[in-house]
């Protein structure tokens, strides 16, 4: 699949300059950009890539922490960046560095409307869910994980600089008449997915990632797309149905629960158990209201009111 072509076609006609000048967009750290570019060249030795990362102490610490975590399962600890890169390989290392760099940019920006701790917790939950779905779809779980993690990365910036507009949406979310994307399109002429994908493309990130970000509100219908339906993009879109601060209700979970009728391998509660366990294993703790298993157990499928025709065949 030619991801670069799909990305360029989808973003044609939209420019970052179309956004209000009052919006202060994040900048990707130079080390992240340099590493992402150099690591695409198969001729570049790992030692050179390690040298790039070692100029950023925060990235170095995060990389070693991740590689030596229980998630990677190394028998002996990686003591140097070079050893860590050797274990992960270029592709996984590139995704990790990109995700860590963008996460740092998000955490550094305080939003007037978003609870940053809950926001990152929700994103991490979505990332783990997207990875589980990717395994079911037999597509790249690493791309799906990063896609799930970064799908809403621009919201802290937008909700801070356009706080009055987004406050209108949040005040009406108890009785929503439109989704966040529909609200943004109506109010701005673009939504956070389009803007974030365009910026990620400008950063020259792997083209699969802008596609994951751009189409993450594709819903269940994305499974019927001939190009995207069995890709990390679809896994990211399904993860976007999980509840978050902008969509705290159960509708997304109701749609996922109904998907079980069409997809025998898809078992929502089993996936929720796996995600909750992974979250706990990371030692971050899980808030009671964010446990996917508990949320799933609250579902009343028969009374959900979701039309059967909304489920893709």
Fold and architecture overview:
It is built from 16 helices and no strands. It is mostly helical and 313 residues long. The protein has two domains: 82 residues, no CATH class; 202 residues, Hypothetical protein af1432, CATH 1.10.3210. The radius of gyration is 19 Å and the shape is globular. The mean pLDDT is 86.
**Mind summarizing the main beta sheet?**
none
Helix fraction, binned, reads 55-70%
> Beta-strand percentage?
under 5%
Total DSSP helices:
16
Identify the overall geometry.
Answer: globular
Output the structural class.
mainly alpha
Instruction: Spell out the CATH superfamily of the largest domain.
Output: Hypothetical protein af1432
- Measured distance between first and last alpha carbons: 23 Å
Mean pLDDT: 86
| CATH top level label of the largest domain | Mainly Alpha
């Amino acid at each position: 699949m030619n991801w670069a072509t799909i990305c360029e076609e989808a973003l044609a006609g939209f420019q970052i300059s179309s956004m209000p000048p009052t919006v202060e967009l994040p900048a990707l750290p130079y080390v992240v950009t340099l590493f992402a570019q150099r690591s695409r060249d198969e001729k570049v030795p790992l030692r050179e890539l390690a040298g790039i990362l070692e100029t950023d102490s925060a990235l170095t610490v995060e990389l070693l922490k991740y590689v030596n975590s229980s998630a990677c399962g190394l028998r002996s600890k990686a003591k140097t960046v070079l050893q860590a890169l050797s274990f992960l390989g270029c592709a996984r290392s590139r995704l990790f560095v990109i995700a860590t760099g963008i996460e740092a940019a998000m955490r550094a920006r305080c939003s007037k409307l978003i609870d940053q701790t809950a926001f990152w917790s929700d994103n991490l939950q979505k990332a783990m869910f997207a990875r589980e779905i990717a395994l079911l779809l037999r597509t790249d779980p690493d791309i799906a994980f990063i896609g799930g993690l970064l799908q809403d990365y621009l919201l802290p910036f937008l909700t801070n600089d356009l706080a009055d507009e987004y406050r209108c949406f949040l005040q009406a979310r108890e009785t929503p008449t439109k989704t966040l994307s529909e609200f943004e399109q109506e109010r701005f002429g673009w939504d956070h997915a389009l803007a974030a994908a365009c910026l990620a493309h400008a950063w020259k990130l792997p083209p699969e990632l802008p596609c994951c970000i751009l189409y993450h509100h594709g819903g269940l219908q994305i499974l019927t797309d001939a190009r995207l339906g069995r890709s990390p993009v679809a896994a990211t879109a399904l993860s976007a149905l999980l509840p978050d601060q902008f969509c705290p209700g159960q509708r997304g979970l109701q749609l996922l629960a109904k998907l079980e009728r069409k997809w025998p391998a898809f078992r929502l509660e089993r996936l929720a158990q796996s995600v909750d366990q992974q979250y706990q294993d990371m030692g971050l703790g899980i808030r009671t209201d964010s446990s996917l298993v508990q949320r799933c157990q609250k579902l009343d499928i028969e009374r959900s009111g979701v039309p059967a025709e909304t489920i893709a065949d």
